[in-house]
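Go through this one:
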Amino acid sequence: MPREPLEAIVLVGGQGTRLRPLTLSAPKPLLPTAGVPFLAHLLARAAAGGVTHVVLATCYKADMFAACLGDGSAFGLEIDYVQEDVPLDTGGGIRNAAASLRGSGPGDPVVVLNCDILSGHDLGAQIDLHGKTEAAVTLHLVQVPDPSRFGVVPTDETGRVTAFLEKTPDPVTNRINAGCYVFRREVIDQIPAGRRVSVERETFPGLIESGQLVMGYHESAYWLDVGTPQAFVRGSCDLVLGEL
């Protein structure tokens, strides 16, 4: 059975400080990668996963996004742009962008994507798990050799997330937050508006502590954080070589 039209928020407001000086003239998601802006690869995969409408949560050099990506038709999408006057962090950016979502049902799934991740994971399977379990949020998780640089996410035997530990020096697991989330719309609406909020440090731990169901979707497909120059070059090469 075909899914209902699916919406996504993409967080593109960061300054890309780890990639300077490349990001002094352009935001990180628009840097050329295998012949096109990096964000084009993410948008194409979102569309392949069933997303039809994307809201870009912009801040740094915000006007460059619409000039580059237009209305989204080149990707089989509709794109709207929301600009933050001041940086609102991950949760604040999601809450701010949600005003431009078109769905209104409290249980509607909303995909949220970090803009510095290159991933070949099965978004459709993550969405299916989210719907089957009726989770508040479902997090994409991957295993990495050195989890200390990331938010680590232990789960129980059912896949339920039991904690969210952001960049801890003594990781309890090598399973980490992979930067793709599926939210129930009503959970986004509960994020405080108009201030900085971190989903990693505030929203996810708060949901877990209050007993709401946060699920982990674990997969071993290609995944790379392209936030450093070395990783950005590696990701570009992998795209050219068809490694995803």
Observations:
- The mean pLDDT is 88.
